[in-house]
Amino acid sequence: MLRATALAACLFSLTLAGCGDSASDDDYDELEGKRYAHRYFQVDLHGRSLVSNEPVVDEREADIYRKTQTVLIESGQVLNSALRHDDLSEWESIPEGEETLDWIRERLVVRFPKGSEVLEIALVDRRAPKEALVAAVEAISKAYLNEVVFESKIQRQKPRDILTESYRDLDDEIKRKTNAHQARLKDASSARLPEIAARIELLKQQIARLGDARIGAEQELLRRLVDLELAGSGSGDEADDADDDSDDNEDAEEAGQSASDTEPPMEVVRQAYAKHTAKLDAQIEELTVEVQDLSKDDPNLAARAAEIEGLKSIQSDILNKIEHWDIELKAPDRVSAFGSVEFIEP
């Protein structure tokens, strides 16, 4: 039993040792021992905002970016662009016409070695002339920069251009409306607009306070009537006591004091408060008429002024966004080529 256990342990150790000696996926090099030309690109997978200095994308998005670059380089758009600028069919070992594209795809290797931020474009072939492989990689590299990297930068510029155009259009509208508004203010009838606007605002505040006072008077009347109903008293003295409790309603007290002793107390209270609320209504009506008369000068001027201020606020927000984009667009390109095309002979 002990010998079997020892043998099992020995086999397990050998298995672990064998696994340790075998190459991992990260150590695998698909170009090892092959003949090829290649070029490197430095790629900023995560990117950083120049404003916040925070990474723009996380690791999952960075992995998607790797795969996207690979697909784009292998796309017909990039490879056909490379063939348009460099006629590789002049080399005897490279087929002509549509077969050239297939020949390149079969030999093209695009990768990020060991999951790094280095992009490698390579073309592998055992027989093609060195010059042909170098020329092909150079053509593919240029096409990648033109069709993908530079085009991406142009696309990033578009939101800024749209914002700039909106800012200019808004600026023209603000100038046009401001000029029209200033022209109206020059009229004699509009010269006192600021003073009139302040007076209107004051009158509206007074009207609001009077309205609150009227509501309060109605609530106080209801309270007194309820008290009288509960007391069940029919004497005029209690109505007089109710009148004495209202220090802030002088009109109500005067009406209560002049009421006939023969009238029921609840009717005396109603008359007192009716006189008081009627006076409040008259004051509200008077102030309202004054507001209407003042507004006849040009009721739209204040609205136009407010509209212009609103447009200026929007314009300021757009300007802030443009300045933000100006900073972001100064960031280095996420992809940059370094070195030149190299040829590797095993």
UniProtKB/TrEMBL annotation:
Residues 232-266 are annotated as: Disordered. Keywords: Signal. Residues 1-17 form the signal peptide. Residues 237-254 have a biased composition (Acidic residues). It comes from the Bacteria. This is Chromosome partition protein Smc.
